[in-house]
């Protein structure tokens, strides 16, 4: 009876011995695999979480420390000799621009500065601005001066062009302010950046800046 009872079991085992063997190994393998997968998934999640966290912190720091470029506005620009029809020998350019540091916590060193006036992309005058300064956050500095005599290179031929433009109602120049600046973030100073501000300025027949150009923001770029 006992052996008779056993025979079908054995025969059943003999029927699918390979499958049973395979199944056991398969399950062991699956358990091991799912454990490894779970551990690696956890490590991956921790790693990604850390990465995300560091990214957020960096982004916030970057947002709060990112220096805004200086804001340059043209305030005034005039050539009185244009109104009087006087010759170019007496020409005088009066300029006034403002540079604003709009940063909350970042100071700006202006190490060197140069003002250049262009007419149709030809330099007609220029001079270094003879002061270097440190600009506190949220402060505005006036950059004003005059160009005359040796700092102006107006020929009589060019003056004729100015007069021709004046007869049409407007003489357009470009005031370029070039500066070497450094940003000061807490106690750290950035490297030097070369800044250019390009201000188009239109002068009317009276030699004064036309209202449409007044207090205009000048595009600023670095190189
Ligand atoms: C330049 O313009 C500013 C703002 O309009 C003014 O306060 C300042 O007095 C001007 N400076 C000169 C020298 O004209
Ligand atoms: C700008 O800075 C100058 C000197 O550094 C200071 O006298 C002036 O009060 C400041 N202006 C503002 C608006 O903070």
Automatic annotation (TrEMBL):
GO CC terms of this entry: membrane
Keyword Hydrolase appears in the UniProt entry: no
InterPro entries the record matches: LEA_2, NDR1-like
Membrane topology summary: Single-pass membrane protein
Transmembrane segments: 42-65
UniProt keyword list: Membrane, Transmembrane, Transmembrane helix
Annotated localization: Membrane
Keyword Transmembrane attributed: yes
Late embryogenesis abundant protein LEA-2 subgroup domain sequence ranges: 98-198
Name of this chain's protein: Late embryogenesis abundant protein LEA-2 subgroup domain-containing protein
Organism for this UniProt entry: Penstemon smallii
């Amino acid at each position: 009876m006992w052996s008779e009872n056993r025979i079908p079991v054995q025969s059943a085992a003999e029927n699918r011995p390979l499958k049973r063997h395979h199944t056991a190994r398969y399950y062991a393998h699956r358990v091991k695999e799912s454990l490894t997968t779970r551990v690696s998934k956890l490590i991956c999640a921790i790693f990604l979480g850390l990465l995300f966290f560091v990214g957020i912190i960096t982004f916030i720091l970057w947002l709060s420390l990112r220096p805004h470029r200086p804001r340059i506005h043209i305030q005034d620009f005039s050539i009185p000799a244009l109104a009087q029809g006087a010759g170019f020998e007496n020409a005088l350019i009066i300029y006034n621009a403002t540079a604003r540091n709009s940063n909350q916590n970042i100071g700006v060193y202006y190490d060197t500065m140069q003002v250049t006036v262009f007419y149709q992309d030809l330099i007609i005058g220029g001079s270094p601005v003879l002061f270097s300064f440190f600009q506190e956050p949220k402060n505005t500095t006036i950059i004003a001066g005059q160009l005359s005599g040796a700092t102006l290179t107006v020929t009589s031929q060019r003056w004729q062009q100015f007069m021709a433009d004046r007869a049409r109602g407007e003489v357009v120049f470009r005031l370029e302010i070039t500066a070497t600046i450094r940003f000061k973030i807490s106690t750290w100073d950035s490297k030097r950046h070369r800044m250019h501000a390009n201000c188009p300025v239109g002068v009317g027949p009276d030699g004064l800046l036309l209202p449409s150009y007044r207090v205009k923001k000048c595009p600023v770029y670095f190189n």
